[in-house]
Amino acid sequence: MKTDVLSMDNKKAGSIDLDEAIFGLEPRADILHRCVVYQLAKRQQGTHKAKERGEVKMTSKKWGRQKGSGGARHGNRAAPQFRGGGKAHGPRPRSHEIGLPKKVRRLALKHALSAKAAEGSLIVIDEAKLAEAKTKSLIEAFAKMNIENALIVDASVDENFGLATRNLASIDMLPVIGANVYDILRKDKLVLTKAAVEGLEARLK
């Protein structure tokens, strides 16, 4: 699977062969969905907490007559039905993480890359480097390549390039080791450097 390599000036800078087993699969929505759910569940903090009946400081003295009120024979004011009382079965700190086999996660990443390639949203550039950390020059380069909302993946993030992209809310940059299904799918375009393509192929073979 051959594709063109572009320079930052949007000029052709050669071509590259993409591995069909990584970039040429028929995308499966079920595998991608499982991986996205896994990622989002794993990053939940799970620190939400509500005080329950035993944790609320309220009187436990019987506050009404046993008979004659026509109502229930209440004792503890910390009961959930009273204002200021504890929450019945409230949330407790816990992990929301779910399990997903490593093989499925690797396969999902392949399908995410293949999905971008299939829809024509994959762009390969020769390198992601800037002489100076100027966001303006990066915006001009992206305008030539019709890039507005994208994830850029490189073997290692160039300092100047990373500083320039940090000011752009719609542009994210990750090293190869950080490439993941959720970030790839949530952006309109995926921009890979030649080094990133080699890194991903080495990682997923």
Automatic annotation (TrEMBL):
Protein name: Large ribosomal subunit protein uL4
GO MF entry, a single one: structural constituent of ribosome
Record Pfam families: Ribosomal_L4 (PF00573)
GO biological process: translation
One GO location term (cellular component): ribosome
Function: Forms part of the polypeptide exit tunnel.
Keywords: Ribonucleoprotein, Ribosomal protein, RNA-binding, rRNA-binding
Family: Belongs to the universal ribosomal protein uL4 family.
Organism the protein comes from: Hyphococcus luteus
Residues covered by region (Disordered): 46-97
Subunit structure: Part of the 50S ribosomal subunit.
InterPro entries: Ribosomal_uL4, Ribosomal_uL4-like, Ribosomal_uL4_dom_sf
